[in-house]
Amino acid sequence: MSLDYILSFAFSLLTTLITMPILIPFLHKIKFGQVEREEGLASHKAKGGTPTMGGIVFVLVPIIVTLLLRPEAFKRTEMLIVILAYLGYGLIGFIDDFIIVVKKNNEGLKPAYKFMLQSLLAVIFYLLYVNIAPTTLNIPIVHITWEMGFLYFALIFIMFTAETNAVNFTDGLDGLCAGTCMIAIFPYIIFALIQEQYDLAVLLLAVSGSLLAYLKFNLHPAKIFMGDTGSLALGGLLAASAMILKQELLLVVIGGVFLLEMLSVVIQVTYYKRTKKRIFKMAPLHHHFEMSGYRETQVVLMFWGVALLCALLGLWIAFI
């Protein structure tokens, strides 16, 4: 069984390393490039035209690898939820990216439509999940199990919609989102192995291998961006994994960086609407640090460090 773990990581890593050098010039050729916001940082203007939608590779490759190694996994409802969450939110992101690329502006899919689609998937996954699992919430540290009943729907709805958007906000610097997601996935690999959810462990290891290979092309200066295709998919994967493994509350801790990024946007927008003043120099939070004088690579390394601390804290809380 351990061979599957090694193969899933290795196959995804190698396949992504081989695929990216083919995809990047192809995206250049068809002019599927990033469109930088007019109000964005001046230092980011040079990124305009960099190929986007790189998330297609690290979404499809791990699923294909998992299918080849563990075809029986696709017969289990728990795994289907995770796989459909990864593909479904990736598809929403793909539609958004496609509109941006075609129109050559950053409006993309209208926020109301995007949220509607994200919400619809959350409802579908809840309905699938409650047929095979209890609507209980495990509260760590105090080790209390709370039967939430219909309130569990609200929790799942918030988890999927918030996590996908939070990860999306984090995708703003070279290597930032891929690195923080790879770190956040690690605790769920541990949880999956302990709970004998071996199929999920194989998929998460495959995603980790693919993300590691993707980082080779996404580190500063990035040759390709993941786009909403990748960031929304990763958010859906994390939310689905947390639900299947009954570690819903720990997603807040393990995904601490994503939470901070989302809160910075919510706080900034809310405060500005009321006072016409800004708390942060720019939101999401990573741009605030850039405008404070930190180099892009410094911000990324700092956020990776925080993500690692959050992941370790989540593991510690889970096992005390």
Overall description:
The protein has 320 residues and is mainly alpha-helical. It has twelve helices and two strands, in the order ααααββαααααααα. It has helices at residues 2-29, 55-69, 77-103, 111-129, 151-170, 176-194, 198-218, 227-244, 250-254, 256-275, 285-291, 296-319; strands at 136-139, 144-147. It has a two-stranded antiparallel sheet. A hairpin with a 4-residue loop joins β1 and β2. The mean pLDDT is 94.
Name its key features.
single chain, 320 residues, two-stranded antiparallel sheet, globular
Could you give a quick summary of the protein structure above?
The chain is an all-alpha fold and 320 residues long. Helix content is 70%, strand content 2%.
Q: Return Rg in Å.
A: 19 Å
* Element pattern in H and E: HHHHEEHHHHHHHH
Characterize the largest beta sheet: strand count, sense, and whether it forms a barrel: 2 strands, antiparallel
Distance between the termini: 28 Å
How are the strands of the biggest sheet laid out side by side? 1-2
Helix content estimate: 55-70%
What does the average pLDDT come to? 94
Question: Which segments are poorly predicted (pLDDT under 50) over 5 or more consecutive residues?
Answer: none
Cα shape: globular
Number of helices: 12
Number of strand segments:
2
- Portion in beta strands: under 5%
Question: Structural class, judged by helices and strands?
Answer: mainly alpha
